From TrEMBL:
The lineage of its organism: Bacteria, Bacillati, Actinomycetota, Actinomycetes, Kitasatosporales. Belongs to the ABC-4 integral membrane protein family. It comes from Streptomyces yokosukanensis. It is found in: Cell membrane. This is ABC transporter permease. The keyword Isomerase does not apply. Residues 19-238, 499-699 form the MacB-like periplasmic core domain. Keywords: Cell membrane, Membrane, Transmembrane, Transmembrane helix. GO terms for cellular component: plasma membrane.
Amino acid sequence: MTVLKTSMRNFFAHKGRMALSAVAVLLSVAFVCGTLVFTDTMNTTFDKLFQATSSDVTVSAKGSSDTGETTSRTGKPLVMPASVVGKVRGAEGVRKAEGTVFSTSVTVVDAKKDKLSPSSGAPTIVGSWNGNDARTMKITSGTAPKGPDQVMVDEDTADKHHLKIGSEIGMISVVGTHHARVSGIAAFKVTNPGAAIFYLDTKTAQQTLVGRTGVYTNINVTAAKGVSDDRLKKDVTAALGHGYKVQTAKEVADANQKSVESFLNVMKYAMLGFAGIAFLVGIFLIINTFSMLVAQRTREIGLMRAIGSSRKQVNRSVLVEALLLGVIGSVLGVGAGVGIAVGLMKLMGNLGMHLSTDDLTVAWTTPTVGLLLGVVVTVLAAYLPARRAGKVSPMAALRDAGAPADARAGIVRAVIGLLLTGAGGCSLYLAASADKAKTGSGWLGLGVVATLIGFVVIGPLLAAGLVRVLGAIILRVFGPVGRMAERNALRNPRRTGATGAALMIGLALVACLSVVGSSMVASATDQLDKTVGTDFIIQGDQQYTMVNPQMVQKIKGTPGLERVTEYKLLDASLTTPDGQVSKKETVNAADPTYAQDVRTKTVAGDLADAYKPGSMSVFEGFAKKHGIKVGSTVAVDFKDGTTARLTVRAITSDDVVVDKGAMYVAISTAAQYVPADRMPLDQIVFASAKHGQEAAAYKALKSTLRDDPSLTVRDQTDFKKALKDQIGQLLNMIYGLLALAIIVAVLGVVNTLALSVVERTREIGLMRAIGLSRRQLRRMIRLESVVIAVFGALLGLGLGMGWGATAQKLLSLQGLHILDIPWPTIITVFIASAFVGLFAALIPAFRAGRMNVLNAIATD
C-alpha cells in the first residue's frame, strides 16, 4: 500500500510530464483500435449486404466468378440458356426460380457523357430488375423499368450525380451503347457500401449486356417451406447435373466476404504496421520521461532506501507509475480509437463508400488488445529506468551521484551498438550484391532491422560527436547562448540520443521510400524512352476496362494516324518440349506493328518473326527453365479455344521493365484457335501519328474518346506523369500514416526539454541572476531543441537513404537500374526538422522564461 501511495503521489506531482507521455500512448492505442473498429465495421456492413441480397440458392454458368463479378476479357458475362430456368423450377424443393442477367463490365454516362461511377472503387452494376432485388430494395420515387427506354437507379448514385426522373443515361457495353431515361429511384434496405446500380427490364438487359435474348447470368432459387438451403442445392444439382455452378446463400456470402476481407486485411495490417512504428517511437518518449524523473528524484530515492525501502520496492514504485500511465493512456486511446473509426467512416462517405454508424462494430477483442498493448509497452519501456533507480545505493543517492556502473554500461552499449551497426551494414552489402530478389530481400530486411537497432543503441556515442559538429556549424553564430545550448545537448548524450532516435525512425522510413519511389519513376521513365516507339497509348481507367470493338474502329478512323496496334491478353496452358505443363500463363496477342511500338530486347531470334503465322516468342527465364530454343515447338492450349502448336521464333530478355515476362503471338494467329465470340477485347491500343501531325492527331483522339469516358489517351509525356502521380499518391498516403510516428517523436522532444528545464531550475535561476535575459534563455532552449531535431534528422535521412539505395539495387534485378536521390524532398525534410525543433521548444522555452529568479535559485 505504501508503494502505491508513493507512486500515486509521484504520478500526480508530475502530471504535466505524464500527460505528454500519456498522449503518446493514447495516439498509438487509438490508431490500433480505430483500425480494428473500422475494418470490423466494414466487414459487418458487407456481411449484412451479402446476406440480404443472396437468394436461397443461386445457379450460374460453370466457370463464372465465385463472387458474382462478370468482369472478363471478352466484356461479356457468362450466360446460360433460358431453358435452364424450367429445369430448376421442376427440381424438388423449389418454390420459385427466376432468371436474371447483370454485368459489371459496363460504363454508364449521363447526357453530357460524364461517367456515372463510384469514386470509392466499388463496381458499377447494370442488370435486370427481379424479385430478389425487390426484396432488398425499396422504390422511393417513380416506377420500375418496363420498356427499352426506361432505367431505374439506386438512390445514392442518383443523389451523387444529381439524377432525377427523366434524366437521360447511356450504358456502354461490348454490344454497343444503349440509351434510356430514369423511370425510378430505389433505395437499399441495408447499407450500400458504394456500388452504382442501374436496373433495366429483363429483355432490355439481355440485349444491352449480351446482345441476345433468351439467356441469363444467374437463376435465383427460393426454397419451399421446410427445405434447407443445403438440401435445395442437392436437389437443384441433381436436376441440372454438374455443368453449372450451384451455390447456397451462405456460400455466395462467404465468397463475397472473402474477397472483401482480402482487401481489408491488406489495409488493416498496413495501418497496424504504422501504429507499431508509433508505439516504437513512443517507447523512447517513455524511457526518456522515466529516466529523467528518476534522475530528478535521486535524493528522494536515497532517503527511501535509507529508511528501509528495498530495491524491489523502489523498482516497483516506478513500475506502478508506468502502469498508471499505461492504463490511463490506453483507456483514453480505446475511446479515441472509436472516434477515429467514425471519422474514417465519414471520410469514406465523402469518397463514395457509405458506411452507417448503425453498423459500428466494437468487438470485445478491440479494447482488450488496445489495453494490453498500451499497458505492456509502457511498463516494458519504464523497466530500464526502474531497474536503474533500484540499483542506486542510499549514500550515492543522498550525494546526488549516479549509478556506479554507468560508465561501464556506456562502454558495453557502444560496443554492442557498433557490432549491430556493422552486422547491419554487412547485411545491406549482401542484399545489394545478391543476384536473386528473394535472397536479397531477406538480407535487406535483416540489414534494416540491425542498422536501426544499432543506431538506436549507439545513439549516445553518435550524439557526442555529431552535436559538436552541428554546434560548430549552427550554434556558434549565436555566441555564448549557442555554446550553452550545445553544452546542454551534450550534457546527457544518452538522453539526446534517445530523443533524436525517436525522430530518426520516422524520417528514415520517409527517406527510404522517397529514394525507392523516385528511383522507380526515373527507371521506368528511362525504359519508356528507350523502348516505347509509339506516340499514343489508349487504355481503360480500371484493370478490367477494355477497349470495345466499336471504339477500336473509331480510333482507326481518327484522322492523322499512321498506324493503330491492338493488344490483347489471353489465358492459356503451355506444354513445353521437356513435357512439362505450365498452367495459368498469359499470352500477349498483338498486331505485328507492336514490334515497332515497343522495342523489346531479345537474346535470340527477331521479335518481328514471332508475329508470323504459327509463331510465338517466350521470355528468357521461361526458355531457360524448359530448355526452349529458337525453333522449338510449344503447345498452347487457349482457355477459351483450342490447342495450337506454335514455333518459338524469338526469346525476349528479362532485363526489361515494359512487358517483362511477356510471351507474344500475332492476333491473327490466336484468332485461328479462339472463336470470335470468345476473343478477348483489347487491353490497350497503341497509335502513332503521321510525321508532323502529332498535335492534331492527339486532339482528334481525345475528341473520339469522348464517346467512352472510361478510356484515356496519353502521349508519352502524359504516361510518365500518370506513373509519377500514381507512385506519388501512394507515397503521400504512407507519409500521412508515418506522420503519427513523427507527432509522437515531437511530443518526445517537448517532454525531454520540459523535464530538462525542471532539472536545471537552479542553474537557470543562477544564469538569470548573473545577467542572462529571458529572451536569451528562450533562445538557448530553442537552439538546444533544434540541434536535437537536426541530429535525429541527420541520422534518419542518412539511414533511410542507405536503405533506399540498397532496395534500388534489388529493383535493378527487375530492370529498374537508375538510382535517383530526391534531393528536394530530402532537403525539405531536413529543413522541416529544424522547424519541428523550434515548434517543440515553444512551451518549454516559454515556461523557462517565466521562472521567478529567486524561487529558482532556492530550489533544492
